[in-house]
Write a structure and sequence with these properties.
The complex is a heterotetramer of chains A (248), B (308), C (422) and D (381).
Chain A: E1 9-18, E2 21-31, E3 36-40, H1 47-54, E4 62-67, E5 70-71, H2 77-83, E6 85-88, H3 100-107, H4 114-119, H5 124-136, H6 152-164, E7 170-174, H7 182-195, E8 200-204, H8 208-214, E9 217-222, E10 225-230, H9 232-237, H10 239-247
Chain B: H1 7-41, H2 49-70, H3 78-100, H4 109-131, H5 142-145, E1 147-149, E2 155-157, H6 158-179, H7 182-192, H8 194-199, H9 204-226, H10 238-251, H11 256-276, H12 279-296
Antiparallel strand pairs in B: 1-2
Helix pairs in contact in B: 1-6, 1-9, 1-10, 1-11, 2-3, 2-4, 2-9, 3-9, 6-7, 7-9, 10-11, 11-12
Chain D: H1 11-31, H2 34-59, H3 67-86, H4 102-106, H5 122-146, H6 151-171, H7 173-176, E1 187-188, E2 191-192, H8 196-222, H9 224-234, H10 236-240, H11 246-272, H12 282-295, H13 300-320, H14 325-339, H15 343-364, H16 370-380
Antiparallel strand pairs in D: 1-2
Classes of the chains: A alpha/beta (248), B mainly alpha (308), C alpha/beta (422), D mainly alpha (381).
Chain lengths: 248, 308, 422, 381
């Protein structure tokens, strides 16, 4: 089976094994432009590992990952980012010793070489872009605050902001609302709904209500393999899914 | 270089050289085991490892003097008692150090390096003040210093055999303790996730202290054994530190088997090169090879592949 | 920094303590004291260059490592120098002045040596310095002594290749230690082949070079030559090589901690030195080192030195007694310790001959100075600033002492730049 | 208004730089005799290394236990030039081969080896002082950071490299001077570096270069690169997924640290008058880390004070209590790690700087904005 060019991302026969244990096993799926794909599945199904493989954090044992017809598996993490893939981690990963402004500034897609970084100037376009993004992720009042002092939910937003500023074509979010208060959750859902409009998104999420809200298609993973794929209604009705979820 | 020798001579030399390699291997294993526990399992960079070894050597020295003065009739077996004492004395010091210093630093592994370096300076000065700046001569029972002539050419040093037996014995003991006992499980649980281990009811403080103490104790036994083949002086411990760390790192820090495999490969490489090259160049080449391989394979020889 | 006055107070205390420890009943008979009165030598006349000389005393420096890896070796030298100073003071000092000393720690670190040497010369204006042990420390202080015109008494046997107007070398240079010993082993033991072994630095390398040339001159054979890094502790491989080559003589110049490891492993490998197959000849193991090695581990080896503690002459018997009285009965005295002991005495003799503390005059007076009271016997300063001395061979015994089995009939001339050996 | 600070220097930084400048260029030269001043000059050469370590370790989280290698390489490059100049045929006419360095003559080398030849040129030597260590650091950096070796592993490998280089230098004594090092250096282009005047001048050159390095380090820290280093130290993965090639940044900062160390080494050779393998090995390398830790691993100015104070303490302790100074030194290191992890700089930042700033602020008068005042308040809290 050849990768099809009309997909933004095609994952084919993706496999990784850790000392013989196949965490992801012959996995294939395709993401179209402007699609919001949600990956669900029980713990240990390999969801996070799939994201790790796509963004280069873990090296695949076998398979293909093509993004806009570029093979991602051969690229370094930073090259994958420059190709247009952004990744948010499960636990909020921000630079605690830096301010919110500086966190966003580091993610600003300019001056990414050593000398570029040395010569980087905080000029007006940079400032206005950072302000804009900060507004979008509800942090415009906290720009000079150290990230360490943010609440858990605010850190999640900051990380999303750090992705947005790169303007990726494919955004991968690992449990973006985990550990948030109800109010934060509502705000985040609204934020996500806004940002998934003009790009493709892969989301890992447990909250079914939330999944129903945003998903174009849902992929159910089980033991490193695709168990079911389709619309939310389709997978919810799939007996295999019901067995895996209820059988436990 | 071998043209002028008979086959018999060559065979004998290679046999003995192989044996020399095995002795070196045992020496490396003994040096590295304590550190493999402290550094490999606990992540503490103990720069005072050599000083703990020397403490074991000084304990042996004191024991030998005691026996020579008070019970000379039993002098020929004092060494066994000395090793046991060395274990407990260094383990006790190790636990004291863990309690006063190391336990505050588990989250800052690189800082343990600095603190233990400070400790090593202090220990060196204490040794110097107590035992004098000069090396002390540890008298080894006569039977341990001889050799077993196998053939006319091949002679096997008894202390070499002793070191080898000790290395095997201690490795086995450490292996059983770390991987076959419930206590070992606790140690591994604590080192992998301290908070979680505490939450499931493991007394993490006690486990840490005992682990560190045992690591130091093993170093003490090694130091005690090395009085047979090396020198005992305030600064002698520093000689061991580079080799020891390289052995542990090269093996893949968290793996005991790796430490042993690495001790084996480094010792064989060094022993072979020493035979064909001059001593200094052999040492340089051995170190370079190890560093080179580590650059290609930074996780060491044996490492678990894990999801990060 | 104003620690200089404090230092002198401390120094005086130290000397007082030492006086109590050592006792004043020195070998007065031996060193035939001639009490010179300071009044006969006015300070203005004996000290025209502003050295630390007063009407009562004269200050010198002691510069050795008290800390660090070299402290092991240098302790004996410090003790010997302090003993000599005590004895000189008990006899009334030099030109009627007591010797005070300022002791500095070189800390086994060469820039520290240079730094402290400069402090002693520039800040303390010491009239001479007893000090250094390793070649590296001497090389580090040498430019300082030459620049500020200081005067150093250097006690260690060393590789030669140096002749500074500002240094008196009280130890032997390499040829003095090597050639006679090789002749002896070739003659009495019938040695034909040699295996040269050393720690990897300049002294063993230079010494082995001279040894190789001489061995080849004698028409004999060097079957192996090998160096191990300083601090190396595993010698099984080289021991096997030695076994393979079957030399008549192992010529070993291993130093420091390596020494201990080498001899212990040699013995354990079944090479019994008392059987003299092969003969082990060393120039790096003094009685001091044997304490670390253990007499039982080196029994039967031969060492080539100019001094052994067991030398049987009245000078030495008195010296050993005084040394033990001052520093404890368990002390042993090696070649370098004795050479260090000569330093203050040679300086005293030179100052008295010159009638002045001025460095230039002391330097001028130094060649030709004789010491009949030296523990090693009679020594004389050569015009190349080294000492004429005898070469002796000692046979190591299990109790850690050497039995002297040979000594050259005449004093051996020092030759720091030996023609034909370079 | 100078004191208001700018993109690269906050007011606090300016005050700290100014105090250090006054100390180095006014107080020490006025207060000390040439001998002591020369000592402080020597201490300051270690400050170069410590500044590099602040960048590598404090900011970037890369702990190198082999900075002595770069210090030594820089120092040896300088020493080779000076030695060749000191080995003129007239000065070495007693040798069997006049015109070559004395240690070569003792080792039966009759001709200057090819790789020594370029060191006849001062220009080449000065370039080599920086470029050779940097190239070496680059090779190590590429090999290690590309393979993602970091943390403890990096520390131990650099330590092993220091050990290897020491054995090599000692073993190849015909070409390197062996364990004695390259000694008896006299003149630089005919100018006697051993005189008191020369020492004073060298002290000031050294101080000047130190400030150049401090300035460069400050630029690096205050640029986006500096913030990336901190980001990298705390969340290396996140930096990767923000689109940075982390290895390049590590290589850069490691090379920068090596360059600083090399300058320090060259100045050391000039001021002390020799170079030997005892500055290359493990012990000096770890001591250099300790200077940095005592000064405060996050502060470049702190690093300078750390180098000064530890060395001063070492000299003073060893003069006053020669038999006990190791105890004191060891205790200081443990205390710094356990009780003051941010070293002297941490103490200064918490207790001294806020008060100083208030004083300067008053003098600065109306120019100071309320924004700055807030900053002071935050710092004070």
């Amino acid at each position: 089976m050849n990768a099809r060019p009309d997909f933004l991302l095609s994952v084919e026969n993706l496999t990784v094994s850790f000392d013989g244990f196949k965490a992801v096993d012959g996995l294939s799926f395709y993401v179209e432009p402007n699609e919001c794909r949600v990956i669900i599945g029980p713990n240990g199904a390999g969801k996070t590992t799939v994201l790790d493989l796509i963004c280069g954090r873990t090296k695949a044992t076998d398979g293909k990952v093509e993004f806009k017809n570029q093979e991602l598996l051969k690229m370094r993490e930073d090259q994958i980012v420059h190709a247009g893939v952004g990744r948010k981690f499960q636990t909020p990963t921000v630079y605690e010793d830096l301010t919110v402004f500086e966190n966003l500034e580091i993610s600003y897609p300019k001056g990414h070489g050593v000398f570029g970084a040395l010569m980087f100037r905080r000029d007006d376009p940079v400032k206005s872009r950072i302000n804009e993004i900060a507004g979008e992720v509800f942090l415009d009042d906290l720009l000079d605050e150290k990230a360490a002092f943010l609440s858990h939910g605010q850190k999640q937003w900051l990380e999303i902001g750090m992705l947005l500023i790169q303007d990726p074509e494919l955004l991968m979010l690992d449990e973006p609302v985990a550990g948030m208060s109800v109010a934060e959750r509502i705000q985040t859902a609204e934020l996500l709904n806004r940002i998934i409009k003009d790009r493709s998104v892969i989301v890992i999420e447990h909250d079914m209500k939330f999944v129903e809200d945003i998903a174009t298609r849902v992929t159910v993973l089980h033991q490193g393999k695709v168990l079911s794929e389709g619309s939310m209604a389709h997978v919810q009705a799939d007996p295999k899914v019901i067995e895996v979820y209820l059988g436990h | 270089m071998f043209a002028e020798y008979s086959m018999g001579e060559l065979g004998a030399i290679f046999a003995m050289q192989g044996f020399a390699g095995l002795i070196l291997f045992s020496v490396f294993v003994l040096m590295a085991l304590g550190l493999a526990i402290i550094f490999g399992q606990m992540g503490v960079i103990n720069m005072a490892h050599g000083e703990f070894m020397i403490l074991g050597a000084y304990v042996t020295y004191l024991t030998s003097n005691l026996f020579a003065t008070y019970i000379p009739s039993l002098f020929s077996i004092y060494f066994f008692l000395a090793m046991i004492l060395a274990f407990f004395v260094t383990a006790a010091l190790g636990m004291l150090v863990e309690w006063s210093m190391i336990r505050h630093l588990y989250k800052r592994p690189l800082d343990t390096l600095l603190a233990t370096w400070g400790l090593s300076l202090i220990l060196q000065q204490v040794y110097r003040s107590v035992f004098g700046a000069r090396e002390v001569g540890v008298t080894i029972p006569e039977w341990m210093m001889g050799s077993l002539p196998l053939t006319d050419m091949i002679e096997i040093p008894i202390n070499g055999i002793f070191v080898m037996v000790l290395a095997v014995g201690i490795s086995t003991a450490v292996y059983i303790m770390m991987f076959r006992s419930s206590w070992g499980k606790q140690v591994r649980a604590v080192t992998q996730n301290r908070v979680m281990a505490g939450a499931v009811g493991i007394n993490t403080e006690r486990t840490d202290r005992l682990t560190f103490g045992i690591g130091c104790g093993v170093a003490g036994v090694a130091g005690s054994a090395f009085t047979m083949i090396g020198s005992t002086g305030p600064t002698a411990g520093q000689l061991y530190i580079v080799d020891t760390f390289l052995v542990v790192v090269f093996g893949g820090a968290a793996s005991l088997l790796g430490t042993i495999a690495s001790a084996f490969s480094i010792s064989q490489a060094q022993s072979i090169m020493e035979f064909f090259l001059s001593g200094s160049m052999a040492k340089v080449l051995t170190l370079l090879t190890v560093v080179g391989i580590l650059m290609l394979r930074p996780q060491g020889l044996f490492a678990l592949k894990l999801r990060k | 920094m104003s620690d200089t006055p404090k230092k002198s107070i401390k120094t005086m205390e130290a000397s007082r303590r030492s006086v109590l420890m050592g006792g004043t009943a020195l070998a007065a008979s031996l060193f035939a004291p001639k009490f010179l009165k300071a009044a006969d030598y006015p300070t203005a006349a004996v000290n025209t260059t502003g050295l630390a000389v007063t009407d009562e005393d004269v200050t010198i420096g002691i510069l050795h490592s008290i800390t660090g890896t070299m402290a092991i070796s240098e302790t004996g030298s410090v003790q010997a120098e302090k003993l000599a100073i005590e004895q000189i003071n008990a006899q009334g000092g030099i030109l009627g002045r007591k010797i005070k000393y300022i002791q500095e720690d070189g800390a086994s670190d060469w820039p520290t040596f240079a730094e402290k040497a400069k402090k002693l010369l520039v800040n303390d204006k010491v009239a001479s310095v007893m000090g250094c042990w390793t070649s590296a420390s001497r090389k580090a202080v040498l430019p300082v002594f030459e620049q500020y015109n200081g005067f150093l008494y250097y006690p260690t046997f060393y590789e030669g290749l140096e002749e500074s107007p500002n240094v008196i070398y009280t130890g032997q240079e390499a040829t003095q230690q090597i050639i006679a010993g090789l002749d002896w082993v070739a003659e009495t033991k019938g040695a034909k082949s040699f295996y040269l072994l050393g720690s990897d630095y300049i002294w063993p390398r230079t010494s082995n070079k001279i040894a190789r040339k001489h061995i080849e001159k004698l028409g004999l054979k060097v079957v192996g030559e090998e160096y191990y890094p300083l601090g190396h502790t595993q010698f099984n491989s080289v021991i096997n090589k030695i076994r393979l080559k079957k030399p008549d003589v192992i010529y070993a110049i291993v130093v420091g901690g390596s020494n201990v490891a080498f001899y212990k492993q040699l013995k354990a490998a079944g090479i019994d030195m008392t059987k003299e197959k092969p003969v082990l000849l060393t120039i790096s193991v003094t009685e001091d080192e044997i304490r670390g090695i253990g007499g039982e581990n080196i029994e039967g080896a031969y060492a080539c030195m100019k001094y052994f503690q067991s030398l049987d002459n009245p000078n030495n018997i008195a010296f050993v007694e005084e040394f033990k009285k001052m520093w404890g009965d368990d002390m042993v005295i090696g070649d370098v310790t004795q050479a260090a002991y000569l330093g203050p005495w040679l300086w005293k003799a030179a100052v008295e001959k010159a009638g002045s503390f001025d460095i230039d005059k002391v330097r001028e007076a130094s060649p030709g100075i004789e010491l009949t009271t030296a523990p090693e016997g009679y020594v004389k300063v050569h015009k190349n600033h080294h000492l004429w001395s005898k070469t002796r061979v000692g046979h190591a015994k299990a109790d850690g002492q050497y039995e002297v089995v040979f000594e050259t009939a005449e004093l051996v001339e020092p030759d720091p730049f030996p023609e034909g050996y370079q | 208004m100078l004191l208001k600070g700018n993109r690269f220097f906050s007011t606090g930084d300016l005050v700290a730089f100014a105090i250090l400048a006054v100390l180095i260029f006014v107080i020490l030269p006025v207060g000390l005799d040439t001998f002591r001043l020369n000592l402080f000059g020597k201490y300051l050469t270690y400050a170069f290394v410590a500044i590099g370590l602040v960048l590598c370790w404090g900011a970037g989280g890369i702990l190198s236990l082999g900075q002595g290698v770069f210090f030594g390489l820089g120092g040896y490059c300088m020493a080779m030039f000076l030695k060749l100049e000191a080995s003129s045929p007239e000065a070495t006419k007693i040798q069997s081969t006049p015109g070559i360095p004395d240690f070569m003559d003792w080792n039966q080398i009759t001709q200057i080896p090819l790789w020594w030849e370029p060191f006849h040129s001062l220009t080449f030597s000065l370039f080599a002082v920086i470029l050779i260590p940097v190239a070496f650091a680059f090779i190590i950096g590429v090999a290690m950071f590309r393979r993602r070796v970091g943390g403890v592993y990096f520390a131990i490998i650099t330590q092993a490299i220091a050990a290897i280089l020491t054995i090599l230098i000692i073993g190849q004594q015909g070409y390197t001077g062996g364990v004695n090092g390259i000694t008896d250096l006299r003149t630089l282009k005919g100018w006697d570096i051993r005189t008191d005047d020369a020492k004073v001048l060298l002290y000031f050159v050294n101080g000047g270069l130190l400030f150049v390095c401090l300035f460069i380090a400050q630029l690096i820290r205050k640029s986006k690169l500096g913030r990336i280093l901190i980001a990298m130290r705390d969340q290396e993965d996140r930096v990767r997924f923000s689109g940075y090639d982390v290895a390049n940044f590590k290589i850069f900062v490691f090379c920068a640290g090596a360059a600083f160390a090399a300058v320090g080494g060259a100045m050391f050779t000039l001021q002390v008058g020799f170079m030997s393998p005892s500055f290359v090995g493990i012990v000096p390398s770890i001591e250099m880390v300790i200077f940095c830790a005592v000064g405060g691993r996050l502060s470049i100015i702190g690093a300078v004070y750390g180098a000064l104070l530890v060395n001063l303490a070492k000299t003073t302790f060893s003069e006053l209590f020669p038999e006990l100074w190791l105890l004191g030194l060891g205790a200081v290191f443990i205390a710094v790690v356990l009780a003051f992890p941010n070293g002297l700089a941490g103490l200064y930042k918490d207790h001294v700087e806020p008060r100083l700033l208030v004083i300067f602020k008053r003098k600065a008068g109306d120019d100071s904005s309320t924004e700055d005042f807030d900053a002071i308040k935050t710092a004070a809290e």
